[in-house]
Each structure stands twice: as structure tokens, then as C-alpha cells.
Write a structure and sequence with these properties.
By secondary structure, this protein is an alpha/beta fold. It has 14 helices and 14 strands. Bound molecules: pyridoxal-5'-phosphate.
């Protein structure tokens, strides 16, 4: 017998669940890419990309994943040998730094470990020590998907401004956009990157770079820029439609994106989307608190104010994390996220860690289902846990 048949649920932090509406919107024959409905529809996407980022700048669309957006952003503002300060508290901060290094940028890395947000005192010291203002940019990650930490991006801007440091502030919102509140202009972010397959509820394949005029002014000296990644032709109002993609536009994906932006901005509303993510995250945390009261289960981030609303990283003790993931997938049809880069000397493969995504097209019954599946797994595998977790989660949902 298996209890895993029926509709499966991929509860990993990207790719996230794609709504049937979005899949259906993409299910069409390739249209004319030079004029007609595709071109007219695509024009409506740009203002909505600004709305979802709370930006009045420009947005370039790339055919690529998040890693592509990293390189796109960096290559439009930096030259070979330019110096940047990269902030990391998880695998994705380290990856962003590595992407810069790979392009020939001189990277100073501030690593804040795996369990706490950026230490602003250390950030201030590093910027103060840069008397010649050699850092052209500070690379930050809003939500590190590996650790589940949410960093306070506005306060990074505060530190830069407090020191009159002219470095651009670059934010990776690949995990957080459409999940956690993000205000590009109000928070003083100059460049922001995101990708389609997380909060935007799309398949992987599109990524985005938003930038303001300050960032665009660095473009002239950015000798890393290449024609394909250049954001100017992609955002020039006089560019022909196909020039916005430097070749064939991703027609079906754009129709899908139109649908997902409609759902987020014009139906549910961005503020409501953020509130839904927060409540669902709190339901997950309340269950984890109860389980952890008697056993090895422990959230990676202690302070709820520092946790992402898109994903929660959980320590279960080696090898419980991997064992639980495998059991839950095989027996209940729910796929949990793997531990990523959390390994210690005792647990090099992060077998003690799993992640629960609550990102994008997710509602209360999905979250309650994941929590029920996890509890069944804890019981079946004999992993000790405290009781009352599902009741606690239900209480959060009931009280919302
Ligand atoms: C997913 C993710 C990435 C990488 O995106 P890919 O599409 O896998 O290349 C980068 N940064 C963050 C914060 C992410 O969540």
C-alpha cells in the first residue's frame, strides 16, 4: 500500500507550486513575436514588475535562472578588478559573492555565519575601513533560502548613508519577492534581482534585474558588460520588442508571467500576499515550537522577526533531516527541501537539516497538510517530538 498517490506537493523553496491558471496561460501555440497580442501584452508586464518590486526604476527581463540574474546585475555595474563588499549568512550569499569573483571582481566577504542576520556593527566597520571608497557595491541577500534568515535591507542602506559611502546597494530578492515585504525605492536599493520560480509562482526560466538611475550611471565604466547581458537595450523604450530579449522572446513564459502578476497585484493584492505569507509562516513556526519542546527539532533562526516568511530551515539532528524528507515524500506525497550548506563537521551533507517552503501559491490547507505529513513522519521514524503542534498551527489559522 502507498499513501503517497494523489496530488503531490513540492514544498521546496523553489521551484514553487505553479498555479494551474499560470500553466494554462502558457499552453498555447507560438505567436507572432514581432507584432500583435504578444507584443501588446508584454508591454503591460513592465509596469507590474515595478509594482511588485515597489520601484520606479527600470526592469530588464532575462531568459535565465537566478544565477543568470546575478551575473546580469553585476556585469552592468562593475568592471574587472572593481572591489565589492559581499554579505553572507547562507549558501546564497556565498554564491552571489562567488559569482562576482568568477567575473573577475575583487570580493571582500563578510560572513555572518548561518543563524543570525547581518551584524550592522561589523558592516559599519568594514565600510569605515574603506577610506578610499573602493567598494563600488555592497551585495546583500534579502532572504537566504538556505538558512531561512531575513536580513534588514533598509538598515544596510542606513549604514551606507550614515557613513556617506557611495557604494551601490544590490539586493538578491530571488526567494523573497512576492513573499516578504520588499520596498526597493523606500529602502534605498539600487539594483535588485529576482527569478520567476519562487514567489512569482512560475516555472524557472525567467529572471529579472531592477535598477535605478544611480546604478545605470555606473554602466559606462562597467567593462564587464557584454551585449547579451546589457540592461540598456532590454529597457530602452525605443527598443523593438525582440531587442528587449536580445533575440527570440520567451513568449509562453511571458503569458504565464502576465497571469501570475494578475493574481498577485490585481486580484489578491501585494499587501495581502505578504500578509498571507506571514500568517502561514507563523502557523509553521508554531508547530515547530511545539515539536521542539521535547526532542531534536529546532528552527535555525531563533528570533521570529529575523525569519523569512517564504521558507523555514529546521534542524532535526543527523540523520533525521534526510530520513524525514525521504519518508514524507514516499509516504505522503510531500517533498520537503534539503539542507543546503548547513553542514558542520559532524554533518557535512546537512543530513540533519530540512526546509519547509511556504512560498508563492500556498494556502492554509497546504501548510496544514505539510505539517500533518511531517508529524506522521516524526512518529513513524521514532524521532522524539512534543505534542500539540497541529493544534497550535490550526489556532494561528483560526485566529487570522
Ligand atoms: C533560488 C535562489 C537563487 C538561485 O536561483 P537559481 O534560479 O537556482 O539560479 C539565488 N538566491 C536566492 C536567495 C535564491 O533563493
Amino acid at each position: 500500500m502507498t499513501l503517497g498517490n494523489g496530488r503531490s506537493y513540492l514544498a521546496i523553496p523553489g521551484p514553487s507550486v505553479v498555479p494551474d491558471r499560470v500553466l494554462n496561460a502558457m499552453h498555447r501555440a507560438s505567436p507572432n513575436i514581432y507584432e500583435g497580442p504578444l507584443v501588446e501584452m508584454a508591454e503591460t508586464i513592465y509596469p507590474d514588475l515595478n509594482a511588485v518590486a515597489r520601484s520606479r526604476g527600470k526592469a530588464a527581463i532575462y531568459i535565465g535562472n537566478g544565477h543568470a540574474a546575478w551575473e546580469a546585475a553585476l556585469s552592468n555595474i562593475l568592471g574587472r578588478g572593481d572591489r565589492v563588499l559581499a554579505l553572507a549568512n547562507g549558501n546564497f550569499g556565498l554564491g552571489f559573492a562567488e559569482a562576482a569573483r568568477g567575473l573577475g571582481v575583487d570580493v571582500e566577504l563578510l560572513d555572518f555565519g548561518r543563524r543570525a542576520p547581518y551584524d550592522l556593527g561589523r558592516l559599519e566597520q568594514a565600510l569605515k575601513a574603506d577610506r578610499t571608497h573602493a567598494f563600488k557595491a555592497v551585495l546583500a541577500v534579502h532572504v537566504d533560502t538556505a538558512t531561512g534568515i531575513r536580513n534588514d535591507i533598509a538598515s544596510v542602506r542606513g549604514v551606507l548613508d550614515g557613513l556617506n559611502h557611495p557604494a551601490l546597494l544590490v539586493a538578491d530578492c530571488i526567494a523573497s519577492l512576492g513573499c516578504d515585504r520588499f520596498e526597493m525605492d523606500a529602502w534605498g536599493v539600487d539594483v535588485m534581482v529576482a527569478a520567476s520560480q519562487k514567489g512569482l509562482m512560475m516555472p524557472p526560466g525567467l529572471s529579472f534585474v531592477w535598477f535605478n538611475e544611480r546604478a545605470d550611471a555606473c554602466h559606462a565604466s562597467a567593462d564587464l558588460s557584454t551585449p547579451y547581458w546589457d540592461w540598456r537595450s532590454r529597457t530602452d523604450p525605443d527598443s523593438a520588442f525582440w531587442q528587449k530579449f536580445h533575440g527570440t522572446p520567451p513568449a509562453q513564459q511571458l503569458f504565464g508571467l502576465r497571469e501570475s502578476l494578475d493574481m498577485i497585484l490585481h486580484e489578491e493584492g501585494l499587501e495581502n500576499v505578504w500578509a498571507r505569507h506571514e500568517t502561514l509562516a507563523r502557523a509553521v513556526w508554531s508547530a515547530l515550537d511545539r515539536w521542539g519542546a521535547a526532542g531534536p527539532i529546532e528552527m535555525n533562526v531563533t528570533d521570529p522577526a529575523q525569519r523569512a516568511h517564504a521558507v523555514t530551515t529546521v534542524h532535526a539532528g543527523r540523520p533525521h533531516g534526510t530520513a524525514l524528507r525521504r519518508w514524507v515524500e514516499a509516504r505522503t506525497g510531500v517533498t520537503l527541501g534539503i539542507g543546503l550548506g548547513m553542514g558542520s563537521v559532524d554533518d557535512p551533507d546537512s543530513d540533519g537539516v530540512f526546509r519547509i517552503a511556504h512560498m508563492g501559491h500556498v494556502n492554509a490547507h497546504m501548510v496544514l497538510g505539510v505539517l500533518g505529513a511531517v508529524e506522521a513522519g516524526l512518529k513513524a521514524l521514532g524521532i522524539p517530538y512534543g505534542d500539540g503542534a497541529l493544534a497550535a498551527a490550526a489556532e494561528v489559522i483560526a485566529g487570522a
